[in-house]
């Protein structure tokens, strides 16, 4: 259960961060709602990528 909560929190966290960045971008530039939409999609994609790495579907990135 803990692993499931962790994976769901990582996905939701990515979406929330993307939405926050998008709202901030829209506020600064005045391009509402396009920045929100684009950054929300980036946040979702980043969250899915993080969940897949944590679940072991994709090997961790070697830096």
What does this structure look like?
The protein has 63 residues and is mostly helical. The chain has one domain (9-55). It has helices at 2-29, 34-55.
Backbone CA Rg: 14 Å
Range of strand content: under 5%
Number of helices: 2
- Major sheet attributes: none
Mean pLDDT: 93
Distance between the termini: 30 Å
Helix-strand string:
HH
Number of domain modules: 1
**Overall SS class:** mainly alpha
Overall geometry comes to: elongated
Low-confidence stretches: none
Number of strands: 0
Helix content: over 70%
What secondary-structure arrangement, pairings included, does this model have?
Layout: H1 2-29, H2 34-55
Produce a short descriptive summary.
The protein has 63 residues and is mainly alpha-helical.
Question: Which short descriptors sum up this protein?
Answer:
63 residues, mainly alpha, elongated
């Amino acid at each position: 259960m803990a692993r499931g909560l962790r994976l769901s929190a990582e996905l939701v966290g990515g979406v929330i961060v993307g939405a926050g960045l998008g709202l901030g971008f829209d506020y600064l530039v005045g391009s509402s709602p396009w920045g929100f939409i684009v950054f929300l999609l980036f946040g979702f994609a980043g969250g899915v990528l993080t969940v897949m790495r944590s679940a072991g579907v994709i090997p961790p990135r070697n830096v």
